[in-house]
Amino acid sequence: MRHVVVLVAAAAAVLPVSAASAAISVGAFLTRADALKAQGIGAMLSPEFGALRDEAKAATRQLRAEDEARRAAGKPPIACVPEGSSVGIMEMLDGLHALSPAEKKRPLKDGYARVLAKRYPCG
Fold first, then answer.
1. How many CB atoms neighbour CB 3 within 10 A?
2. What does the pLDDT look like over 10-32, one tens digit per residue?
3. Which residues form the signal peptide (predicted)?
4. Which of 14, 53, 71, 98 is a good FRET partner for 62, with 20 to 30 A between their CA atoms?
5. Which residues lie closer than 8 Å to 65 by C-beta, 6 or more apart?
């Protein structure tokens, strides 16, 4: 189950973002991901697997759009991810789990931003 989380630097598909995707918190995502992980290999057959993958992709697209807007406005990037780098799903989940309780109340895209900024700081 070591699918690669598409990162800000690698996100390519641009699909509409649903209201549910925009609103999911880090904590809610982790609760659902942990329940799915407990199912073992069978989790990949669960409809919840696809739903969580879609949430992750939506958060990545939102983060990429925010980062592009920051760059266009002359602001520093959120994180300085080296070209061609990626973070595995387990590494991203570990990073999300390490966030503070207050950060886990934030939207998933903000959690991704914090994990990436810690892993790939700029400057």
1. 12
2. 232 333 334 444 569 999 999 99
3. 1-22
4. 98
5. none
